[in-house]
Amino acid sequence: MPVSFRGDRVSITRRDFLVGSAALAAGTAVTTPFLLPKYHADRRPKRSRVAVLDVEQYSQHLDQILAAGLRLFTIDVRDKTVVLKPNLVDYVPGNTINTHPLLVLAATESFRRLGAKSVLVAEGPGHQRDTRLVLSQSGYEQCLKDEKIRFVDLNRDELIRTPLRAGYTGMKALWLPRTVLEADFLVSMPKIKTYHWSGVTLSMKNMFGLVPGERYGWPKNILHWKGIQGSILDLCATVPIRFVIADGIVAMEGNGPLNGTARPLGKIVLADDPVAADATCARLMGFETGRITHICEGSRFLGNTSPVLIDQVGETVNAPATAFQLVPEFRYLHAKGVWL
Amino acid sequence: MQLLHQIFFTNHTLTGRNCRFALDTGIRQPLPVIYSRPVANIFHQSHFDWTQDSLPFEPHYGWSYLRQISVVVWCFDSHDGSHYKVPTVTTETIGLSTLLAELSLRQLPCGGWAALASSSQPAIEPTCYSALALGSVPAGDIARAQDFLLHTQNPNGSWPVFPGDDQEGGWVTSLAVLALREVVSAIPGRMRGFHWLLNCAGKESNWFWKWKFRTADRHVRFDPDKYGWPWFPDTVSWVVPTAFSILALNQIPCSCDRVENASARIDCGIQMLFDRACPGGGWNAGNGVVYETVVAPHPDDTAIALLALRDRTKEPIVQGSVDYLERAAPTLTTPWSLAGRVSLWPHTAGRLSRFAARLLLFPISKAPTTQARWHWPASPWTTAVACQLSG
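Above: the input entities. Below: the structure tokens describing the complete assembly.
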């Protein structure tokens, strides 16, 4: 039966109506996923706090420096289990790949003084299957043993199937280590580095170490296939980072994360917001934060990047006189006005 | 009880490490009578946290000492009546016995083993290593381990990485097939495992991804025509799963039907291993050159790849990789990498001394003190490998 509008000018049949409705529904179904947010909850703090500390070298005084830095924040870890997650990928003689063990020791001491019930170090190296060899060669083994700090190999920890709280990769769930999921206070301790697959590897990318190699392989190839930037966001949405201590005393530029060159930066970055921490680190490297996909997208629901929303304490954040070198594919990250 | 009294004159100090030193160096001093504990108490304590300031039990009665007793009993039984002058009490035999005892101790009620001593979640990889180790020297409950493996097999023939895992299967399928090699009741399951392995391939075997890796994605230098096995389905090939799959498929009986393409698949995997070798010798996970930069090899990956290439000893890549391992050996201090190194005995006949075995066992001998404090007290994972290889 014909349907008429405005007299006899426009008329559609029932079939036309049904076809049109179906087309509209299909179009909506296709476009909606691109318009709806891919995260489950907006976890941005109203304000974030970042402290940049000037530290010229690794020394036994790091614990005092770090303790002073932590006093700039309101941190309550009393009777809590603190998990420190350093960046411990592999060991290549002469390359500054990993978070320095002295900084991890200093962090442990500081959190113990703040009343933490226990402080442990946990990591699942992404390249080397022999975790203990990485610990031994990178100087961690002796340090942790001397200070009686427990270490957990996240590549072989007990696993719990964990639904992801964001949908950037399309993965519904990941098997993640019990140690991290049950921690009260997770501290990401990245090495400030460039990364040939995503531009930078900072506190958010550092979460790749949570993904167990025993289940997903070495390197954590599934995250590359699903998209590195999306994987970073899915992981950070699922396992919240409570604090960041970024090692930029000697950073890395160029062909990171393994074969770049050392870049003395002389900074430690502390933050109570991983997105603000990474944005600050990126500025210190001479990069435009808005061009780094996971930082830009993370600012929608995980944390703040706008200087207006970040309380900057400690040293001033200035772009370096010469920006960090990058592989050609990521040179667009360089901020304007920075010498390349 | 007579044996226990004899042990007192063999041990030097409290710890297992010193016990071995004592045996090695011939030092024999009496210990206090306090060590005369009933044998029934052996292994009464399985898990504790060494990170605490004080030990959770009275140290003189801890299982670590009693464990040493079992070791020495084993030696004395072999040389009844002349134990104090036995020249064959070596680090290796004591280490092997200790490790087997350790493995039995660590077996979970379900029959499997966890990767870490602190964990109660069984996993297939350490269970396979343990089953292989216990199978070589009958000890412990090997039948229960094999049952565990049989019952965890997925309906599609693969094995999960651990019970309860998703059922798509994983790289440990090749290990499970190897671990069940002498179990008659496992023949149907193993055949399904072989078929799953033959149907599983790195994603680069697909024409589309081949094209992508040849044209748009060329930062990692490799030939996508040479593919092996992935860690789990729908990802690309990597060295370790490929090497284990080659080892497993080499065990296919010649007369089996529907596996006639096995040799071609093995050859393709071997070519993939050659293609992914690091330019200076050795292997890492599978990226020899990235962004025109040579990536360093790893000892364990190299050892596992060489095991799969045992029949290709004349190949320059194999020779170069053995040379790399020889160079790396003095710097290795951890059981896992050293286990890989020692595993190449047949590969490097005439080139490898028993020194390597001592290197392997020495760090393991420290397990009750240092490793335990680290949350991996003689982890079944490394212990099983070391046990099998040293045996």
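Note for the figure: The radius of gyration of chain B is 23 Å.
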